[in-house]
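Protocol step 4 of 6.
Sequence for Nitrate/nitrite transporter (Rhodococcus artemisiae) entered exactly as in the expression construct, tag removed. Do not edit the line below.
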Amino acid sequence: MSVVLEKEPLRSKFARKHYIDKWDAEDVDAWEAGGKDIAKRNLIWSVIAEHVGFSVWSIWSVMVLFMPTEIYGIDAAGKFFLVAVPTLVGSILRIPYTVATAKFGGRNWTIFSALVLLVPTVATLYLMLNPGHSYTTFMLVAALAGVGGGNFASSMTNINAFYPQRLKGWALGLNAGGGNIGVPVIQLIGLLVIATVGNTAPWIVCAIYLVLCSGAALGAALFMDNLGDQRADLRAMGESLKFSDSWVISFLYIGTFGSFIGFSFAFGQVLQINFLAGGDTPAQAALHAAQIAFIGPLLGSVARPLGGKLADRIGGGRITVWTFVAMALAAGVLIVAGTLDDATEGAASGGIMVAFVLGFVALFLLSGLGNGSVYKMIPSIFEAKAQGLEHLDRAGKAAWSRSMSGALIGFAGAIGGLGGVGINLVLRASYSGEAQSATMAFWVFGAFYLACIAVTWVVFLRVPRQDAEIEPAPAS
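Step 5 output, structure tokens:
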């Protein structure tokens, strides 16, 4: 299939087949002859569609800043649970979304997954304009936003099939980072709305995303392609999970992506609680929280491609273990700041607030690096295992590796997303306790990062690995 020219008429863009029967990204000659341009075009629109998916997935992390308790009747603990619901739904949907691109085509599914985002966006807009509904209704509408979380799995599986092994770390990191950046972008839009018209016009945020979701669907229809030889199904996912490495990767992704998405949804609310404790009005607290909340997710999103690139050069295991070491240290900063705050009466001092913000920002940045390095490990592991499949030829080994990698990308993404649910539930429990602070939650986070250090070192760094052995490890 030839590369589509920039000046091709709109009718021709729709009329062309958008279908590639056979795709071999490892064929260097074909790649240089035009394959890389096709892959790049699909990557660009995959990033855009995943970007708006992440934004809609995290829309309630912004909406809670527009929800004074006296008007909406939902307290801080209720809001933490409200933002945990779409995290849970999105994580579960990542499993079926993983196989959707192989069944329906990457282009076709991207169009559908972008258009379906209109449903939760419209529902959120209506509910925010009519706050008299029950908490259950808010929970159901928040759950609808979970469809945005599924976009990640289908997008990553699709792009994994387009790129050669030597470029997967960068391509997957860029695809995921561009998607992740949807979180700080919607928070930045919320900040601009609050700064210009106050915290009484959440409908503006929703209206903007109605336009963006429609644009993403149109771009996918015009510029993306379906791959005829793409394979990823539930049987492949089951086969990939026979390998012990798959479960280890999923566990580590809880620590990286779970941290990113969990803190992304909760950071603004944690800040708002502290500003309210300092004497701000609800409107002032919302503005001050929004001014800071987007910085962490932005840095984490930008860091993700860098994590993939470093893993390409240095090794995924090495980057991952040092990332968790630094995350444990950042959690230690939060523990110290929280303990000092708990020991003093009244609002947190300026120094403690700075420590809170710096600790969270460091966690965001490091989780982004870890996201890239952990996902680089997935195709590397299965590429190595594929070389031991003596009954397959080169093309068969590449197809097996892509199938296993694509399946695990979706499963690990689902498990990692559940880490975000855990973060919000731990924070909710921490604020519901007698101290009504997040210090207990910080201790839990730090302990988990220490466990991730130990697992990464033992499995991937302690002894030389025999990835060429393809026999699955026995079930434990």
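Step 6, annotate. The chain is about 80% helix and 0% strand.
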